[in-house]
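Example for tutorial group B:
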C-alpha cells in the first residue's frame, strides 16, 4: 500500500513539474516573435502605384514589414468592403522617443484621409503597457488604400496590418 501512495505522489509531482516546465517554455516567448506570428517578412521594396505615388508593398494578414525610425514609409492595404483597419508596430532598440509618430489612413483614390498622431512618450507608454503601438481607422471604399506613417523617434520597428469588415464588428 505504501508503495502505491509513493508511486502516485511521484507521478503527480512529475506531472506538475512537466506542467510548470511547459508554462515556462510557452510563457517565455519572444514578444517580437509573438507579434509577428506566422506572417512572412515583405522587403517592401517594390513600386506599387497608388494615389499618384508608389508604395513599397501590399500588406495584409499574411505579411509584415520592418524598418527604422526616424523616417517615413507607406504601404497599401487591399479592402474588399468597408472595413476597420488596424496598423500595429512592435518597437525595439529604442534610443529616443521623438516628438511625434503619425499614421495616415487614406480612402481608395485618396479621396479622403484620417490622420492619427501620438506624441513620443505616448508611443513608448503604449509599448510598455501592451508591447505594441497601434492606430486604427475605418475605411469605407473598396479597393487599394494607402497607409502612410512617419516618426522622429529613434528605433527599429516591425509593422503589420489587420483588416476586419465593418459588418463583423
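The residue assignment follows.
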Amino acid at each position: 500500500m505504501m508503495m502505491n501512495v509513493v508511486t502516485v505522489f511521484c507521478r503527480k509531482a512529475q506531472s506538475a513539474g512537466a506542467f510548470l516546465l511547459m508554462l515556462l517554455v510557452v510563457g517565455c516567448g519572444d514578444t517580437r516573435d509573438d507579434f509577428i506570428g506566422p506572417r512572412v517578412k515583405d522587403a517592401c521594396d517594390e513600386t506599387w502605384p497608388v494615389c499618384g505615388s508608389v508604395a513599397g508593398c501590399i500588406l495584409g494578414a499574411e505579411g509584415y514589414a520592418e524598418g527604422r525610425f526616424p523616417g517615413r514609409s507607406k504601404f497599401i492595404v487591399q479592402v474588399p468592403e468597408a472595413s476597420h483597419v488596424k496598423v500595429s508596430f512592435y518597437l525595439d532598440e529604442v534610443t529616443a522617443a521623438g516628438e511625434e509618430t503619425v499614421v495616415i489612413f487614406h480612402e481608395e483614390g485618396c479621396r479622403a484621409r484620417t490622420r492619427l498622431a501620438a506624441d513620443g512618450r505616448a508611443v513608448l507608454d503604449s509599448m510598455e503597457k501592451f508591447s505594441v503601438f497601434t492606430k486604427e481607422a475605418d475605411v469605407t471604399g473598396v479597393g487599394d488604400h494607402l497607409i502612410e506613417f512617419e516618426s522622429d523617434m529613434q528605433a527599429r520597428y516591425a509593422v503589420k496590418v489587420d483588416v476586419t469588415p465593418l459588418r463583423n464588428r
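The first helix runs from residue 2 to 27. Compare this with the pattern of hydrophobic and polar residues in the output above.
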